[in-house]
Hints:
By secondary structure, the chain is mostly beta strands. Helices cover 6% and strands 44% of the residues. It has a 17-stranded antiparallel sheet that branches. Strands 18, 21, 23, 24, 27, 31 and 32 form a seven-stranded mixed sheet that branches. Strand 8 and strand 9 (93-99) form a beta hairpin.
Amino acid sequence: YEGEWKGGKKHGHGKLLFKDGSYYEGAFVDGEITGEGRRHWAWSGDTFSGQFVLGEPQGRGVIEYKAGGCYEGEVSHGMREGLGFLVDRDGQVYQGSFHGNRRHGPGQMLFKNGDKYDGDWVRDQRQGHGVLRCADGSTYEGQWHSDVFSGLGSMAHCSGLTYSGLWINGHPVEQATKMVIMGPEVMEVAQGCPFSVHIQLLQDQGEIAQSESGRVLRISAAVRYVQLPAYSEVSFFQVDRDNQETLIQTPFGFECIPYPVSSSEAGVLGPRAARGGAEADVPLPGGDQELDSDALHGQEDTLGDQLARGYPPCCPGACQRVEQGRATFTDVLLGPPPPGYHPFLFLDSLHKKAGSRSRGGPHPRVAPPTAQEPPGGSRSLTEDQPSPFPTGEYVVMIRDVTTPPFLGRTLPTAFKHLRLVANSSGQRPHILEEGGAEASGGWQAIYSCTPELPVPQ
Length: 457
């Protein structure tokens, strides 16, 4: 000891050096470390500057940690106790209440990733009520337990999606896990006439996810791809080489190629937009397969990825936001075949059959060709047989394009089988493409995307 004495005791200002290399410098009273001073512990490397009582830090002071970081605030028996300000070795900042050296009670914390929390703490964990403001703009307000969302709470996600309901272990209990398109198993729509598509978001138990709103859904379409097994080299719907498209797998046992879908707000969305709505944009293996949404989940692109690759941005009418688990696309139209798509019809052999059944009578509605009908009976759609809306089988697809995905999960694409039938109501078809002709009759086109071949003479 080096310093002042009184009555044979250390009293006043002095410096005390311990055997292990620790030391104290500051005030002494009647031989005890009491008052303002500074102490360094050699075994931990930590240093405290502030108030002491009977050799222990007590009152207010500053602790500097050898591992990094510091604390300024109230202490008791050498531990953080009461209100204080802590900066840890990662640079994270906490300001609030402490108990037993831990964050306990109300407090605010700024995390190294930019997230900010303001709420209750229990033994160094967020527990009770609190508000988390994430660096990406998302906000959660509600109950916490063991440092995760637990109880009733509301989240406003940075994508615009909102969820308000029950959380357990950080997961929303009433979150949507799939989408369904309402209506009959096969929807029938008249040529050139608008229709509506109603979607519901469902939970695992099959209940509507009413706690969820704001998820962004995009509509697209595709037309059935048919290739006769006996004449696989023949094209029934010719696609120019520059417009070759990858087949889209559907859960209905057949494949499709992208087809434009339009709305009064969006204009015409071309096949490339339709392909973006499919869940599998890869060549298909042989044989019929059912759609495995979980297996395809990892192959889905985000809307941002598509924009980065040069895809045209979605028109307003092509996307809708979910409201309390429901969404509706209105005035939906299947557009005329886009440039580069050339329908072919199997008519000659059917004309002969029709003539034998009812000579001089009207032609029956053309049906899809079968493997027994030779390719020589086909001919291309000509100007005197306009069909900007060919009847046939189509697929409407609804895709979750919420960006970024809510809690890292994108819902599987929903499919609806649609059959376009002849317009027998007399309603005037809607044509959005400039220069398009009105739909007439019940022509049915079969589509293929194989390279173009000459039509047999």
